[in-house]
Specification:
Elements (H helix, E strand, L loop, with lengths): L1 H18 L2 E4 L4 E4 L2 H51 L22
Antiparallel strand pairs: 1-2
Helix pairs in contact: 1-2
Length: about 110
């Protein structure tokens, strides 16, 4: 878990200056906003930052959740089924000589 976070954080934090149109010149000690170099690289760096962050969330959160979902659903359905069976009413028995009627109360 930690190596994944370190890799993503390093890559995303390293690309943020270029994604924000900043060009850092280490030799001349200049920081230029909106230079010609950054005009070509901004779309690429933004897509890499977003894609890497999104893939990290999918890998570390969504995938384990989806793998645990069938087990949780099976556990939930088992507990609900046990609750229904436990609260099942007793069958009603009629006396043998009771007249049989339809839904309107008319004898059959």
């Amino acid at each position: 878990l930690r190596p994944v976070f370190l890799t993503v954080a390093t890559c995303v934090l390293g690309l943020i200056p270029m994604a924000l149109h900043l060009s850092i010149d280490l030799i001349n000690r200049e920081i230029i906003y909106g230079g010609t170099v950054t005009a070509f690289w901004v779309p690429l760096t933004r897509s890499i930052c977003f894609g890497l962050s999104f893939a990290t969330v999918l890998t570390l959160v969504v995938t384990p959740s989806m793998l645990a979902l069938p087990y949780r659903l099976q556990e939930l359905s088992g507990s609900l089924l046990a609750r229904v069976r436990r609260n099942k009413p007793l069958p009603v028995t009629l006396p043998v000589d009771a007249p049989v009627q339809d839904a309107r109360g008319v004898p059959l």
